[in-house]
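Saturday, quiet lab. Running sequence design on the structure tokens for the scaffold JK sent over.
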């Protein structure tokens, strides 16, 4: 007899027990403990442009951005665009005024750059380059997808409802890698906000099938680099309308120094 201390906690315990039974039914050969990874503080981050280049190599779609390093506004820009600070030390651009959306003209682009330079200097930061990207107009929803090395456990995958309100919503699911397509699909569907991706009250359905394929590609990329990758986060991963795919709008990666 297992006493249940509260209905919701009890149901969760039963679900976890069922998940454990499903894992053990696969056979012991499919359950492997990870090799210890070097999780020392000696780590290095790559900037957003570099992280997105790595993701494209893994088959993850990203916006076609332009690196801006000079004082002159680039000529071959199709507006509206987003402007972002670009640097290894910048992990959360929104908090420091490092993102400007819906820029419609070259004058607005130049002004946004000057504001960001001023904001960076106030914080003792030197910004040498910026990333210009086209605005994405037809997103049907956003996810956060993160992979992280956890001491004594290995790599974990976190899927959450994405965007700037991620921390406030507390709506996430975490899996231990390697994870199957079925597990990722179940984790995605377990999110409280999932109905918003599935046509809630007449909304356009998001391409959740493409999201699962993208998450699988991210996991494969991360597992191939498990000896050096410490953290990978895409927030947001924009889900387009059903059948139209996904697009990684922001990305952070952190490696051991040996990468």
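Result came back. Writing it out in full:
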């Amino acid at each position: 007899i297992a006493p249940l201390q509260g209905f919701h906690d009890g149901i969760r315990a039963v679900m976890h027990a069922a998940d454990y039974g499903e894992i053990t039914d696969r056979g012991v050969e499919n359950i492997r403990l990870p090799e210890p990874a070097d999780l020392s503080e000696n780590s290095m981050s790559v900037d957003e442009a570099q992280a997105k280049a790595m993701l494209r190599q893994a088959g993850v779609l990203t916006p076609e951005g332009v690196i801006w390093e000079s004082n002159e506004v680039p000529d071959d820009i199709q507006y509206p665009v987003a402007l972002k600070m670009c640097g290894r030390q910048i992990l959360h651009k929104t908090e420091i005024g490092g993102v400007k959306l819906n820029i419609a003209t070259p004058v607005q682009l130049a002004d946004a750059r000057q504001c960001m330079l001023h904001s960076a200097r106030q914080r003792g930061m030197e910004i040498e380059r910026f990333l210009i990207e086209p605005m994405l107009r037809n997103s049907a929803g956003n996810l956060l997808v993160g992979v992280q090395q956890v001491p004594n456990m290995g790599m974990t995958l976190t899927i959450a409802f994405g965007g700037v309100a991620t921390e406030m919503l507390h709506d996430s699911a975490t899996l231990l890698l390697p994870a199957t397509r079925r597990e990722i699909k179940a984790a995605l569907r377990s999110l409280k906000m999932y109905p918003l991706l599935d046509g809630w009250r007449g909304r356009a359905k998001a391409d959740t099938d493409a999201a699962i394929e993208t998450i699988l590609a991210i996991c494969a990329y991360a597992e191939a680099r498990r000896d050096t990758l410490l953290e990978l986060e895409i927030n947001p991963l924009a889900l387009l309308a059903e059948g139209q795919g996904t697009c990684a709008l922001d990305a952070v990666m952190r490696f051991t120094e040996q990468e």
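Notes for JK: The first strand starts at residue 43 and ends at 46. The chain is about 30% helix and 25% strand. Ask whether to fix the surface positions before the next round.
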